[in-house]
Design goal:
Blueprint: H1 3-18, H2 24-59, H3 65-91, H4 100-133, H5 138-166, H6 171-188, H7 190-205, E1 213-216, E2 219-226, E3 230-235, E4 240-244, H8 245-248, E5 253-255, E6 262-270, H9 276-291, E7 296-306, E8 311-319, H10 324-345
Helix pairs in contact: 1-2, 2-3, 3-4, 4-5, 9-10
């Protein structure tokens, strides 16, 4: 026996005890109204519990996830209770018995859709919370929108299949149709889907983000936008390069974002007529120049080799900056200082020369 029938029986017993003769229709209407009011009260109590207790409890937790979930589901749950109450109230009216099966189907579908709506709201809150936790940027705003739509679409697809099952419709044909259609769409949109999945891979794996300076093959520049199909990079030359996301996930990408210091190697040569005494001074001269700069640290300085036209030195140092312009400024400062110091010491920098010895023989 349904809840409405139980209430109707209770109302009938009350009127019998009171000795009041009332028509069955009036009893049904009273029972129907009473059931509806009862569920309104139950819904209000549940909403009040969410508002007074669950919400206050959530405010005490460290995360804002539970606060957002409660804020998004308390009203839909209240309407869910009202929906159940409306169906139970209509069920008490025997004049609607001929429509009972149709009403059951309609309210079951409405309940499934409302439950699906609640699930999608929770999913959206969780995705937004996850994105905020991982420092949401312009890229994530675009991809999160697509991600939400895809997940919500999957949830509503399952809800649609559940509705078909409730309506006792054979799902085998539907499932086969969805499978064949999905395969056909996948083949038709193979490249687009590949770029889309690559976009999600870039978002979740984060090999680079908006504003990062990257090098891809022979191209280098700053990431300006990451979309579902392509990524736009502002090259050093000024033009914009559009790269397919699938390319970026299948090739090596150098990201300079996490660069904290640079390892710099440079060489210079002095002429062969430089005396050994002056050669031994060179490492100390260069070391002092580098150590006087607060951004740099010396790794090593060596007289490396006897070159074709010069005595070659190799210098390696670290600069504590990822700014390329700053590195070039420092290197320029070192070059000037080395040149000035060598001029004071009478050390000549080498340049390509060739000496030709002519053997003159008397004939």
């Amino acid at each position: 026996m349904s809840f409405g029938a139980n209430v109707l029986e209770f109302i009938d017993d009350v009127f019998t005890l009171l000795g009041i003769d009332v028509s069955p229709l009036v009893k049904q209407v009273i029972a129907s109204v009473g059931i509806f009011l009862l569920f309104i009260i139950i819904g209000w109590i549940i909403y009040h519990i969410f508002e007074r207790y669950f919400t206050r409890w959530a405010e005490k937790t460290k995360t804002k996830l539970d606060d957002e979930i409660l804020r998004n589901i308390k009203k839909p749950i209240y309407f869910f209770v009202i929906l159940i109450g409306t169906y139970s109230a209509l069920e008490a009216l025997t004049i609607l018995d001929i429509y009972s099966e149709a009403l059951a189907f309609v309210f079951t579908i409405l309940e499934i859709l409302l439950a699906t709506f609640i699930v999608t709201r929770v999913v959206n809150v969780v995705i937004a919370w996850y994105a905020e936790k991982r420092s949401k940027k312009e890229m994530s705003e675009h991809i999160l929108f697509i991600l939400k739509k895809i997940i919500n679409g999957i949830i509503y697809l399952f809800a649609f299949l559940i509705i078909l099952y409730v309506l006792k419709i054979d799902l085998s044909g539907v499932v086969i149709g969805l499978g064949v259609g999905g395969i056909a769409i996948a083949f038709a949109l193979q490249n687009v889907l590949s770029d889309a999945f690559s976009a999600f891979s870039i978002y979740f794996d984060k090999p680079f983000e908006i504003g990062d300076f990257i090098v891809v093959g022979e191209y280098s520049g700053t990431v300006k936008k990451i979309g579902m199909k392509s990524t736009r990079v502002q090259l050093l030359q000024g033009e914009e390069l559009v790269l397919a996301n699938s390319v970026l996930t299948t090739t090596n990408v150098r990201n300079f974002k996490k660069l904290r210091k640079r390892r710099i190697k440079f060489n210079f040569g002095v002429t062969y007529d430089t005396s050994s005494k002056k050669l031994k001074k060179i490492p100390d001269i260069v070391r002092k120049i580098i150590e006087d700069n607060e951004l740099t640290n010396v790794d090593r300085i060596h007289f490396k080799e006897f070159g074709d036209f010069s005595l070659n030195f190799e210098v390696i140092y670290y600069i504590n900056s990822k700014d390329y312009a700053k590195f070039m400024d420092v290197q320029q400062e070192f070059n000037f200082a080395i040149k000035e110091s060598f001029e004071k010491e009478g050390i000549e920098m080498a340049f390509p020369t060739q000496t030709i010895f002519i053997n003159s023989e008397k004939t």
